């Protein structure tokens, strides 16, 4: 080269409101291809190769716009392969009380290809253990477990669902209509909610139990009323399947301590009432699941504490990330 080096620039021009992060890796990869082709055949520096270079760049732009991938043979020994990968949204925050469940039966990637932390926690993901329990049983730091689960959420290997409790309340959603009409979803439901090997449940029995979910009945109430085990139905799997497919939604309880009066900088609290360690969570921002997980109290113990206090109200609402 005249100056002992060849400098070139490769860039994509995108609209101002377009998300471009998915093209960054393609630019780097294409630049690497061009460096290799320059060393092999002077694709960039040789004026005679300029028409071929323009042809390659034009085809890359066209194929990425139309097919989101490109495969261009430049020489008998070199073919350019490019693909625009789908960009996932940032994964949701993972909290101690959250429960992870596989989006499919098991991840397609062999366990040996995951990092060591992921290999330790994968066997514990069953749709019922919460994050803190997974960390304790795997003997892995809780923050590492959360980071690992966020990574699995990003790649759509798992999703987060509410903690299963017999004292929990669920309500049916409009998607229940889809279950009533979709034969494939019905078959999938029957297969997934079967209790042990006692026999296959009928869709009629499954749908009749789902129809009982409302704001007045807990899971325990429905079990006492409908006796799902006698109908070969596992109520835990039934609830899990319903939440995963959006057929039912969990109603969360948020206790609010109305005795706390704030006047400018003064905070006045009664002398009697719940212990300060648990009272700090009665702000309406923490659900029963969060409080139980943080304090070690059971749902029943927390309800007893609240029932003894006339000045503690409970707000019930549906919140996906509660």
From TrEMBL:
Molecular function terms from GO: GTPase activator activity
| Cellular component, GO, one term | GATOR1 complex
| Any GO BP annotation | negative regulation of TORC1 signaling
* Residues passing through the membrane, by range: none
The source's domain of life comes to Eukaryota
| Family classification | Belongs to the NPR2 family.
* Name the UniProt record assigns to this protein: Nitrogen permease regulator 2 protein-like
